[in-house]
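The methods section describes the discrete structure representation at length, but only in general terms. An entry of this sort, consisting of the sequence and the corresponding backbone structure tokens, reads as follows.
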Amino acid sequence: MSKPTLDIQLKTLPNAPGVYQYFDANDTIIYVGKAKNLKKRVSSYFTKTHENGKTRVLVKKISKLKHIVVETETDALLLENNLIKKYKPRYNVMLKDDKSYPWICLKKERFPRVFSTRRVFKGSGEYFGPYTSMKTVSTLLDLIKGLYNLRTCNYHLSEEKIQAGKYKVCLEYHLGNCKGACEGLETETEYNENIKAIREILKGNFKDSLQQFRVQMKQYAEAMQFEDAQKIKEKIEVLENYQAKSTIVNPKISNVDVFSIMSDESYGYVNFLQLSYGSIIRSHTLEIKKKLDETDLELLTLAITEIRQRFHSKSKEIYVPFKVDLGGYIKVTVPKLGDKKHILDLSLRNAKYFRMERFKQDKIVDPDRHVNRIMAQMKADLRLPEEPRHIECFDNSNIQGSHPVAACVVFKNAKPSKKDYRHFNIKTVEGPDDFASMEEVVYRRYKRLLDEKQPLPQLIIIDGGKGQLSSALKSLDALNLRGKIAIIGIAKRLEELFYPDDPIPLYLDKKSETLKMIQQLRNEAHRFGIEHHRNKRSKTALNTELETIPGVGEKTVVELLKYFKSAKRVANAKLDELEVVVGVSRAEKVYNYYHGK
């Protein structure tokens, strides 16, 4: 479709809710979106200046558009979701994880069976689920089996066949797990009462079953049937124990869906908890890949629609961290305190844990994605013009001004590049002056890189506060590198990040990956510098006096220390002992130095 026609379409779009579809020159759908007002939303793509690069590319590729008008925004949400799943447009977020989930089925038959399945056949029974964990299903089925005697056979138990005596009881009957409905030893009414109670347990309602068991226990006790009363008591304890473990908040909170979102530069993670009578009966986290720098509101809105469809949720109320518009028939609550806020925080914690696990997995199976994500995160957190693929960190080491040294460590693609590490002996500074030492080593480092035409880092980290940062900036100014390389200082006490010409420090979240990466660089620079400082100090302390003897060089010192093991023993040695090790001439010089005093 030509550009003028597209312009005409934009002018004639209705002011109504609906779904719009963008097509490229090959007539392929590249984006699907929904809007409260189609005219305003679609026109905004062509009238605004978009900061996000991918959005600008999308707009350039649009060759034609189509739209579908619906009655409500809720209808638009559902339709958008279905179209995205059907066509998988390139610029829409990716909804991952579409595997099959386990269900619990109450079979539609006389004397219904209760079992787990991953296949749902419409009209074949009543299905509860889907559950995201088979462990949950097994626990529930074990609980039901311990409370109620149900059949496990697949016989067609019609009244005619039972009366004709076609079936015989099996081992399950003799073990006490079944009451023998196949031989008419249990009535259909009695069996269906158990099924009714099981149905409530699967919904998360334990109240009716507990009350029923307590009545039975009392009746057995009054009839002096203490063994039967004890069995019922044990069932009550099992049910109460399960209820205590599964109830998270006030049991009055029922039929509620809880959603929370955690996102980074590339992905959003939406956690879903389904509550019934204070119990979490389902938990699931959906990973969403961003395509056009979507906001948390956009991602959460899309995910809620997808998850509720996927899990067939009919809940009339949802808890979310911020206001979401899902249509009038769903009550949206943003909890501020109490039990509701507690369960929302639990959901957010689940999303965070899921994100952390994915990071660990990516680090192993897809290290490139892990590095790309950290680089993008550091760029955003530190307000850098480009990703810091090459980072260098400086640290000074000295004790009361003695043996001042400095270290420079280099990280490339978020990993230590140890072949690029450098030690510096301070040459131009007298005494303990960290500021002047920092100025010297930064100047020497980047003067050499410039002379050798080596690549410069995208980020320099200075271990220290404003003073050290200012000193490093003087060197960058002298080399005309100010503004060409990003530079920050990190103060140890509160982990404050200082920027040039900004008196107010930046504080990052203590758990953020950006701060952890900076701390790793700082700690590595400190370790590397201290190692060099100790070696230098030890060597100097050991050799200073011997090396000051006129006519005695380094080789002589090494030979003497190898033989005598310490400088003190060299000083106390006799002349003939020294002659054996280093010869007559040098032995006299060493002996006269100590004994001629």
Remarks:
- The chain has 20 helices and 20 strands.
- The chain has a mean pLDDT of 81.
